[in-house]
Write a structure and sequence with these properties.
The complex is a heterodimer.
Chain A (H helix, E strand, L loop, with lengths): L3 H19 L4 H18 L14 E4 L5 H11 L4 H7 L28 H14 L6 E6 L6 H12 L5 E7 L2 E2 L2 E2 H4 L5 H7 L3 E5 L5 H13 L5 E6 L22 H19 L2
Parallel strand pairs in A: 1-2, 2-3, 3-7, 6-7
Antiparallel strand pairs in A: 4-5
Helix pairs in contact in A: 1-2, 1-3, 1-4, 1-10, 2-3, 2-9, 5-6
Chain B lengths: L5 H13 L5 E5 L9 H6 L4 E3 L4 H13 L3 E7 H4 L4 H10 L5 E5 L17 H6 L5 E3 L4 H12 L5 E4 L22 E4 L4 E5 L4 H13 L4 E5 L2 E3 L3 H10 L2 E5 L8 H12 L4 E4 L11 H7 L4 H14 L1
Parallel strand pairs in B: 1-2, 1-3, 3-4, 4-6, 5-6, 8-9, 8-11, 11-12
Antiparallel strand pairs in B: 5-10, 7-9
Helix pairs in contact in B: 1-7, 3-5, 8-12, 9-10
Classes of the chains: A alpha/beta, B alpha/beta.
Chain lengths: ~280, ~300
Amino acid sequence: MENLKVLSYDLREDVVDMIVEGKCGHIGGDMSVMEILVALYFSQMNISPENQNDPNRDKFVMSKGHSVESYYAVLAEKGFFDKTDLIANFSKFGSEYIGHPNNKIPGVEMNSGSLGHGLPVCVGMALAGKMDALDFRVYTVMGDGELAEGSVWEGAMAASHFGLDNLCAVVDRNRLQISGDTEDVMGHDVLQDRFSSFGWHVIDVADGNDIDQLNAAFSEAKTRKGKPTVLIANTVKGKGSDVMEHKENWHHRVPSTEELKQIRKDFALKKEAFLNE
Amino acid sequence: MNEIPNRQAICDVLRKEAKSDKDIVVLCSDSRGSASLTSFANEFPKQFVEVGIAEQNLVSISAGLAKCGKKPFAASPASFLSTRSFEQCKVDVAYSDTNVTLIGISGGVSYGALGMSHHSAQDIAGMAAIPNMRVYLPSDRFQTAKLIKALLLDEKPAYLRVGRNPVADIYSAADCPFEMDRATVLLEGSDVAIIACGEMVQPSLVASQMLAEKDISATVLDMYCVKPLDIEAILKAAEKAKVVITVEEHSPFGGLGSMVSQVIAQNCPKKVVNLTLPDAPVITGTSKEVFAYYGLDAEGIANKAIVLLEDE
């Protein structure tokens, strides 16, 4: 089996290349969400370019659409489209690779970008699965800042009302949003209680950048019947390099030449450490 | 007088088609009664989704269902559907190109004295400004039924607005000419062209009869397809007429009148007068009283035509 920990850093390199080439990108959230996407696409979900039109494929909606660079990097790695083309054209004039997910691109189910849409859309997808007695699963990733959108809670309410155990949401809990600490902007420290009270099974993933912990949580979610599951994945914004980690001013930013040099060096060290594990 | 509202015609078609098409799903936001969809919900419980009073959820859930091959019809009061869930209509339906039919019930000033919170005088403008969103305001129950059948044949997003109250029949079961995205020409004349949509078509037709008694000949167009607008029909009607009048149950901005004026200004400049609701909360009353007060009844439309032609 491929070393997914190393792959997560290979894909971080792709993300950085994309952002440098396209001269824009939501780099901090890209870094925090990477292992969540890698676990989903390379361990958990039944989805590939070969079965992308199969009604029983697993479905994914990138609700925190601004982390599109990580999403595109993962889809390219899965073979949905050409990575060189992606890096060369991301966000360029006339490009298909818009700065938020677009379903004209193979592998992308739904357009997103405006926050608070992914979960209710996934409720519809999961309902369709129940109606047709198909066993596909539906996944979405939300940011923690995104949880201030009321529509998230409309979706959360409906998901438990309909007993959608085929639905699994992930919160990329990196504790930072564009204006600063999430707890200063709009507090979410009672997140577990909030989802529990909405009728969800809640799994706290202590290290949301740890593939093994994520896979264990996703596997547990599959066994929970009668209610949807949410993973609160405690991640680090800017994960992978001290240049970016825990810094809200890296929410949307293009690294300077100096910063880039250090970021690449830090990524290489992380990969080396994983290979020596 | 017909006592079947257009919303009932929608339910009748969906009940008939849902028997053989299990992908048809109806969604309501605590609105099944107002939408005349209670009988659908009772007859097809597995093809009915109640989301509660949550219009944003209604639209997003519909989009998710559509993405998985379902044919959702989401029915909610037009006032809430077109504004509370506007972004979901834009992103999850139009932009993601999902096969969702949005049904705005009790449209315009149907709710009468309930006030501006319940009126939808902005829905045409809002919805029509969204790329990939079609906008339809059928005139009577027969045309509504034909439109729903046509919408079942395609897989594109659409917003449909119907009123709450029964509308006097314009067509009949045997005689309801309908071509998708083409206006229906109800009458051809040479003095005035009256272009109307939704519930305003019927009084426009009555107005044309009043005008005929005064030897004024009118063209009457049933422009149920507000987007895509039937430009060819507008130009044909306008070229023959001295003046053009548009009639709609909508704000003066961004509705049928604005669109028709744009088309005529660009192609065959001529006087166009837009009969609309005011840019203000409307006066308290039943929809019938409101229409009469703002000149949106047959007398008001006919009088406007007479005054305009006198000025010519």
